[in-house]
Amino acid sequence: MSEALALPTALLSVEELSVSYGGIQAVKGIDLAVFPGELVCLIGANGAGKTTTLNAITRGVPWAAGDVRWRGASLAGVGAWDLVRQGLVMVPEGRGVLARMSIAENLQMGAYVRQDPAGIAADLERMFDWFPRLKERRSQLAGTLSGGEQQMLAMARALMARPQMLLLDEPSMGLSPILVDTIFEVIRQVAEQGMTVLLVEQNASRALAVADRAYVMESGEITLTGTGVELLDNPKVKAAYLGE
To answer: Listing from the earlier edge strand, what are the strands of the sheet with 39-43?
Structure first.
């Protein structure tokens, strides 16, 4: 095959991945891929295995079988603490902000792997442009923020690492409609600037509307895949996840 016709290589590939908790198989031999510059979403009901999949990718839970490859190399044996340095950053469900640090300090902690003070300062101002509410409260302790503000902070802190790929686990959960709009606008802007994103989200209509491609997960298995537009128009997806 000529170089001009060569297929792109996945930035992240999940290959026959299985994860078990005790005697329960939560993820059952799934395959998925995310290519550079894509926004891919993984949708499904509670308990489908979406969060477990993200936790397995980021080495938070052990694999029973299969492999996860990042930039072509297996993540088997790689510590979770090494992934940020490799450009793979996740915003977990529950946010995990540093409660006794200020907003500004949380954001600076997000850039701990970087050595470019001017770039860090520029990115800090960019985060404040994207999330004006954080700028207004930059000296406030993170633990005193509302749930929506903590979600904004968790996303901004992850972006301060300048990741190659951003993994988002249920970023709109529990937020007001206005804050959901803010979160999805930032996700759209991040994707438009070329960052690769893997989004796990229960708000299927919003996720599919911004996704290049999507996977549907049910009971630990991938049951459907296609473009965001295709799945928005899929009768099974409409009936199960879009209330149509």
So the answer is: 88-91, 165-169, 196-200, 39-43, 213-218, 221-227
Phi, psi of 181 (to 5 degrees): -60, -45
Q: Which residues of 70-96 are buried (b: 16+ CB within 10 A; e: fewer)?
A: bbeeebeebeeeebbebbbbbbbbebe
What are the 10-residue block averages of pLDDT along the chain, 244 residues in total? 61 97 92 97 94 95 96 93 93 86 96 94 94 93 92 94 95 89 92 95 93 97 96 94 75
User: At residue 30, what are phi and psi to the nearest 5 degrees?
Assistant: -85, 155
Q: Which tokens sit at 43?
A: 């949708």
Size (the chain), residues: 244
The answer to whether 214 and 231 have CB atoms below 8 angstroms apart is yes
pTM value surpassing 0.85:
yes
- Residue 152 CA to residue 33 CA, distance in Å, equals 27
Residue 97 CB neighbour total at 10 angstroms: 21
- Per DSSP, 232 falls in state H
123-157 residues labelled b (16+ CB within 10 A) or e (exposed): bbeebbebbebbeebeeebbeebeebbbbbbbbbb
**H helices of 139-221, where?**
147-159, 177-192, 204-210
Report strand pairing: 24-34 vs 12-21. Answer: antiparallel
Q: What is the pLDDT of residue 1?
A: 40
